[in-house]
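Technical appendix A lists one of the benchmark inputs used to test multi-chain prediction within the project. The record comprises two sequence entries:
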Amino acid sequence: MNTLERVVKAILACKENPGELTVTIESNLREDLDIDSLDILMLVGELEEEFDISINEDDFEDVVTVADIVAKLEAHL
Amino acid sequence: MLEQAKEMVARAGFNPYRVPYNNRDFLDLASNNYLGLAEDARVKRAAIEAAERYGASLCGTPVASGFSEYAQTVAARLAGFVGLPQALLFPSCYQANNGVFSALCGKDDLILIDKQAHSSLIEGARAARCKLSPFLHNNMEHLEKLLRRAGDSRRVYVVTESVFSTEGSIAPLAEIAALCERYGAVPVVDDSHGIGVLGQNGRGVLEHFGLRSFRGLYTASLGKALANMGGMVAGDEQTMEYLSYLCPHLVYSTALTPPVLGGIMGALDVIESDFTQRSARMWRYKKMLAEVVGMGGEAPINSVACGRAEDAVRLSGELYRRGILSTPFIEPSVPKNACVVRLIAGAGLAEERVAWAAEQLRAII
């Protein structure tokens, strides 16, 4: 799986009804995916496990889209 | 956000943030007066007698003049009521939830919290400045996954509410306690909508699940079924002693007043004598409304699913115009587009009035 696919997997793991969600690289976390600040914390945990890295939650304060997450992870990896 | 709230109120034609009412003209399905104790003559008399005996206020914090023998008696009685060794009294449960994590948690700890936990718990957990990981609502599989991952943390707390107050689901606390036991974590439960409501004798969620040796932290509001105000934190003696010295939200706040302490004792007396009949009425009323609204949770809470915030506020406004008080829940209190209007029909209401409310709801929904 590429980075985007793994990010999508992590996002879906944070949702109670993942089957109802369509995630693309352009998806806005809040507007399209209903991810709030608490969900971001859950997502950080899933990304840490998926990518086997440690993430500083403060680094994710400015993420707005899935593309932002992918960019941050690819810079980190 | 203020402008958005004002615009939404203007579109809905109703302002739920400023609702003028008097008891005579409205049927109150908004308050958390589950057992109807707020208007019970015995509870009122106990509050008045305590004021006459001990004064209007202790005018001090619990480390100064606020820690009276009477306060100690009330705290001990509450601890015994819920089945725990010791309790502390706070000015509110919001304050208790805000304060305990900052006092107890260090930077190497981890707090796992139900995604739909009350904002006081979430804000309290955030204020602790240790790692915070939400788990999917009441999802034990997800919780266990996070517990398995938590090996490096010094101490792990698992935080939930007993009754989720917007939709009335009950947390699987027995499973949570078992998972905590298995992974060495500390369960923390806010029983604000469970104390005086759940359990065969109204002793709350620990009685409801038969948890006799609960090794965790318990908090609850004394302003709902117990019909007074304030909050309690209960647990083992060592933790309570620690908090009594080192929780600023307790140490630096004026202690609960004698009328409140008296009212709590009065409420506990009435629960111990009258719970069975009052509880039966409360559940009957819940069922009457559930037949109309359809979204009946496990607790005596009914919720009408409205979707958008504007629709929830509009429904609450329509109920208000018909003489019924209700509580609209909109984001961020609930997830976006999952807004509800909550109705709680307390045991103090007359059955014909609840039946009338059900008819009004049937006409609107």
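Residues 44 and 55 of chain A are 7 Å apart (CA to CA). Chain A touches chain B through ten residues (CB under 8 Å). Comparable benchmark entries are summarised in Table A2.
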